[in-house]
Design a protein that fits this description.
By secondary structure, the chain is mainly β. It contains two helices and 79 strands. The radius of gyration is 34 Å and the shape is flat.
Length: about 1100
């Protein structure tokens, strides 16, 4: 809003640039444009500062730059040219700096500039330089050099604060330090003795408690008052706030993996759009190696009180904590059930049932009131209690024992005396879990996959409550799972399609194999594969759904860290097995990066299930509790944590209850009140800990939730992207869809606009659809399904990577990913001798995968591994819509003793006498030693038989990272290779004179050519845009090459390879680009969609105009 533009100085390796912030066409956004062309520097720059000179009308273009070689340069930057004004030397006591700091506020009245530098041996150097031209001598040396010692490792970052009177240093010794000049008084400073060599500057605070090295530290305001603190950015991906005395105030978690690199404070109070707080606040901004920028409002960073006041020891926390210990030291806790924010029930091994009243314990340190309401000593012949289930309103308690006995305790309306009923549920088998629900329904389960369904009702004649057996359900086990024949049920919920109609009721059980079992009250069971780990919770969310319309909805969470929403409806077909219900998975979300085992999940906002397209579903705020005793509030729209509370330790059993009576539909929308959260768990099975934020007497309100990351730039993946491919190509009017695969084991679908949108720079729309692969993903390829095999599906994604895993994922019309094929590859993990004679471990990996249509619904799938093997399958795509791929045949052959890095399959024009149609193919494999292996065959058996007749060609001096094959019009094949040696290679192959017999076809290498220095770093990917070639390298250059064919020589033996001549190039925006995907040409348009992926994704349009 200021009349003058804002300028940004940008530093990079040996380069300095000046950018200007201009208003963009989109409201609320800005655009960065170069105001000064990049300037090449002679050394690595560490920091830059503007020099404020009132006599210079262009002072904003005069900057000081600090370098690693401890000198400072003054530069005048202009649009018509930039020049260095002068160079000022630094301290002579060091030869190299790890970090440096220059600040405009450090320029003193006599035109002297204060500089700070950090060394590899832990020293902090401070010196002043004179930069005024009128007083600058030709050999001015730095003055007043201060040397501050204390760090035990390299100083990674320095910040000059308080007009140059304080320095904050961050080191790889996992500490940050605050250094102040003489006479500076800071509130709440620690008073640590000075350690400067000259006794002038003093270390006033040491900030410990980090899990890894520190990348940055800064002095920050803790509130609107004058109180100050220190914020640190750590490699363990956590931002921490400290008081000046070294007390840790808060850990801010929200960045994913690979560390937080920088942290700064906005100079003014700002309003964060998504904050539930109405007023503006000072904010902390952090940037991480996950590619995300996050904003943290500084409004709840209250300092902890001294430990001598336990009642107020955690006044700045969101939660109050209480605990209760079992009175009998020999007894231990079996089960916890939380029925409301006011009471919980505890069942112990010795058959005691306690009621824990939580209402009085709303302040820190208050103990809960506990009452023993039942003991099995009054029931003769009862063994140890193993499980507990509590019905609605705590009117019934269902207990299971080790001898297979079931006990039902009923509390009559208005009464306090419990009525006891018992029944023998299992013979010779213990009860492993008990579940109680509405209408007097309950279920007992054992370790063998059986569920006994009961209902406890009142006899009007005797006025007694009697349990009645309804049915016994048996759960089928998936083949190859279960180990030792066990199939324990861990969670269950009683559902109904129509409210108030008990005949439509059915149970949904979750087992330890990751499956959901739907059981009617008559015992008919159907199995649904859901999670890749144990199903820890199943929750009926019918009351939270905006409109159900005769359907039922359930949330499930599992050991894979995933939360799923399922829709249940009456089945349209009559199944002889008794399966009456159809289940559809609406969405899948992973909570808490780095955390698995989601024990409980609660939606805090109302579920909207009216949309049938997964991309348009409104996903609520989710609160998930982990078995590690963490629980997080997750905003699926931003893909980030809002906050996380850690209780500490792996503690179970536990229970979570949460609601937000007047919650907004999404975070930041209109709404009021505050969430009520109660979390109880057993610590070492001897005590109960209660964490609650239901009512803290005004100490905590909704504003406390603002201390949370607000993702400005949400990363698509937590790690680098290895592969990308189009699922649907964008057209002139229709949007496109592509899939990315990353080192963090995730596959993700992303929408992009039409070609016109891409040309205008439209934003991408990463969907919530993602799938976890068993290991990091190295390669993917997309195969469209034939029209007769599509059904509700549209394409298959074949993905391979670590742990020798290859899988096929189905992309259906609801834009979900579902695994339909997972062949078992031979495990060749082992140990091999290294060059120095020692034995090293190695792991088999799928390095590259490709597929080829073989006619009809038959598909060739080929995968190359790190041990030099080639696995090939013929699969039938007609069964894909049913959720599986049928294998017709499979072979394995060896291509090389070295690892295969890239693989491409291409059809061959072969005619066989008497054959109506023959699809021959060739496999081109790029090897880690730079050679190309080519093998051709008519079918898979011939491929295996001709393993010894492969063609070999040495194309490059290092590994071949990618291959691209183009069929020229004269029947020849052009093969382009991208190598680790920064080079590209082009080879020409031709098919031997075709034989009319069924002999294996053979490709002859006619010529090859290597283009050295095609990229300044490793060439990672190539693709053909006939007649041109496109390549991308780690130098972030996307290059387009013309292929110039030499004049024909008349003899194949003397034929020369084509030449590669660069036509154009540009710098891509994503870092470390390693994958390239080009869409097909669109009718009526000259553009082709192009994707470059690495640490991020760059999507654009490949255009041709006037032959360029």
């Amino acid at each position: 809003g200021t009349p003058e533009p804002t300028y940004v100085a940008v530093l990079g390796p040996y380069v300095l640039a000046l950018a200007r912030c201009d208003s963009a066409s989109k409201a609320g956004s800005v655009a960065l444009v170069y105001a000064v062309p990049p300037v090449q520097l002679s050394d690595w720059p560490l920091d830059v500062a503007w020099l404020e000179d009132p006599t210079d009308s262009a002072s904003r273009h005069t900057v000081a730059v600090a370098f690693a070689r401890h000198f400072v340069e003054i530069w005048r930057l202009g649009a018509t040219g930039s020049e260095r004004q002068r160079r000022i030397g630094g301290p002579g006591t060091v030869s190299f700096l790890y970090s440096a700091a220059l600040e405009p506020c450090c320029i003193t009245a006599n035109q002297r500039l204060l500089c700070a530098g950090g060394t590899f041996d832990g020293r902090v150097l401070l010196w002043e330089v004179d930069h005024c031209p009128e007083t600058l001598a030709a050999s001015t040396s730095p003055q007043q050099v201060h040397e501050l010692r204390g760090h035990q490792g390299s100083v990674m970052s320095l910040r000059l604060c308080l007009a140059g009177r304080a320095v904050v240093s961050a080191s790889d010794d996992r500490t940050a330090r605050l250094w102040v000049a003489p006479g500076v008084e800071l509130e709440n400073a620690g008073g640590i003795d000075a350690r400067g060599c000259d006794g002038t500057w003093a270390c006033r605070g040491i900030f410990r408690g980090h899990g890894a090295r520190l990348w940055d530290a800064n002095l920050v305001p803790l509130s609107e008052s004058a109180a100050l603190g220190v914020a640190t950015a750590c490699e363990d991906s956590i931002v921490r706030l400290f008081a000046l005395d070294g007390t840790l105030l808060r850990e801010l978690r929200g960045h994913q993996t690979r560390g937080v690199r920088c942290v700064v404070v906005h100079p003014k109070a700002v309003r964060v759009d998504k904050s539930p707080v109405g007023s503006a606040h000072r904010v902390l901004v952090s940037g991480g190696e996950d590619g995300a920028v996050k904003v943290w409002p500084l409004i709840a960073a209250k300092q902890s009180q001294p430990a001598s006041s336990p009642k107020d020891a955690d006044a700045g926390s969101l939660f109050a904590k209480q605990s209760w210990k079992l009175p009998d030291s020999e007894d231990w806790i079996r089960e916890l059930v939380l029925t409301s924010h006011d009471e919980a029930f505890v069942a112990t091994n010795f058959g005691r049932l306690y009621k824990v009243c939580l209402q009085p314990c709303r302040e820190q340190g208050d103990a809960p009131q506990v009452e023993l309401i039942f003991s099995t000593e009054v029931v003769a012949g009862t063994n140890n209690i193993t499980s507990l289930g509590v019905g609605p309103d705590a009117s019934q308690f269902w207990l299971g024992s080790a001898d297979g006995l079931g006990i039902v305790l009923t509390r009559p309306s208005g009464g306090h005396q419990l009525m006891v009923s018992r029944a023998q549920v299992f013979e010779g088998c213990r009860v492993s879990a008990v579940f109680a629900s509405w209408g007097g329904h309950g279920a007992f389960t054992d370790h063998a996959g059986r569920a006994s369904l009961w209902r406890c009702s009142r006899d009007d004649v005797s006025a007694q409550w009697t349990p009645t057996l309804l049915a016994t359900a048996r759960f089928a086990s998936a083949s190859g799972k279960g180990g030792k024949g066990t199939q324990r049920v861990l969670s269950a919920a009683l559902m109904r399609l129509c409210i108030g109609v008990e005949q439509d009721a059915f149970w949904v059980f979750g087992d330890e194999q990751g499956a959901l079992h739907i059981s009617s009250l008559s015992g008919a069971v159907q199995r649904i594969e859901a999670h890749k780990g144990k199903v820890f919770s199943v929750r009926d969310v019918a009351a939270d759904v905006a409109s159900s319309g005769g359907t039922a909805f359930a949330l499930s969470s599992g050991g894979d860290g995933v939360v799923m929403l399922h829709r249940f409806a009456a089945s349209a077909c009559s199944d002889p097995s008794g399966s009456r219900y159809a289940c559809q998975r609406l969405w899948t979300i992973r909570l808490g990066y780095g955390l698995n085992h989601v024990a409980h999940v609660v939606p805090l906002t109302k579920l909207d299930c009216s949309a049938h397209d997964q991309a348009n579903l409104q996903v609520p705020l989710l609160l998930g509790a982990f078995r590690s005793a963490d629980f997080v509030l997750w905003d699926p729209h931003a893909g980030a944590e809002v906050w996380r509370h850690r209780c500490g330790g792996g503690k179970r059993p536990n229970c979570l209850l949460a609601d937000w009576p007047t919650a907004p539909s999404v975070l930041g929308a209109a709404g009021g009140g505050r969430p009520q959260v109660t979390f109880v768990y057993s610590a070492e099975s001897k005590s109960v800990e209660i964490h609650t934020m239901a009512s803290l007497d005004g100490a905590v309100d909704a504003s406390s939730l603002a201390l949370a990351p607000r993702t400005l730039c949400s990363p698509m993946h937590g790690r680098e992207i290895h592969a990308v491919s189009w699922v649907f190509h964008p057209t002139s009017v229709e949007p496109g869809l592509f899939v990315t695969a990353a080192e963090d084991t995730t596959l993700r679908l992303t929408r992009c606009g039409s070609l016109s949108d891409l040309a205008s720079g439209a934003e991408l729309r990463p969907l919530r659809v993602s799938e976890r692969h068993p290991g990091s993903i190295r390669t993917i390829v997309v195969s469209p399904l034939p029209s007769h095999a599509q059904g509700a599906a549209s394409a298959l994604v074949f993905a391979g990577g670590a742990k020798s895993m290859l899988r096929a994922y189905l992309v259906d019309t609801g834009l979900s990913l579902r695994c339909v094929w997972s062949p078992v590859l031979p495990q060749r993990n082992g140990r091999s001798p290294s060059r120095d004679g020692e034995v090293e471990a190695f792991e088999e990996r799928v390095m590259s995968v490709d597929c080829l249509a073989m006619g009809g619904s038959l598909q060739l799938v080929a995968a190359a591994t790190s041990s030099g093997l080639l696995h090939a399958w013929h699969v039938d795509l007609s069964s894909a819509a049913a959720g599986r791929l049928d294998e017709r045949s499979r072979v394995t052959t060896r291509l090389s003793q070295a690892a295969v890095l890239s693989l491409r399959c291409a059809p061959l024009p072969v005619q066989i006498e008497g054959a109506a149609e023959t699809v021959a193919f060739a496999a081109f494999a790029g090897i880690a030693d730079g050679s190309l292996v080519v093998q051709a065959a008519l079918d898979l058996q011939q491929l295996k038989a001709s393993a010894g007749r492969c063609s070999h060609a040495k194309l490059l001096d290092a590994g071949i990272n990618d291959l691209a094959v183009h069929a020229a019009g004269d029947g020849r094949l052009l093969v382009a290779a991208a190598g680790d040696d920064h080079a590209l290679a082009l080879a020409v192959f031709a098919l031997e004179p075709p034989s009319l017999t069924a002999a294996p076809p053979r490709l002859l290498l006619l010529s090859s050519r290597r283009l050295a220095g095609a990229h300044a770093s490793a060439a990672k990917s190539v693709c053909w845009v006939p007649p041109q070639l496109v390549s991308v390298g780690l130098d972030r250059r996307l290059r387009v090459w013309n292929v110039e064919h030499p004049a024909p020589s008349g003899s194949p033996e003397h034929e020369q390879a084509p030449l590669l001549v660069e036509a154009s190039s540009r710098i891509v925006r994503c870092l470390e680009p390693g994958a390239l995907a080009l869409g097909s040409a669109v009718e009526g348009s000259s553009g082709r969609p192009l994707i470059v992926a690495g640490r991020g994704v760059d999507v654009g349009v490949f255009l041709r105009s006037e032959g360029r």
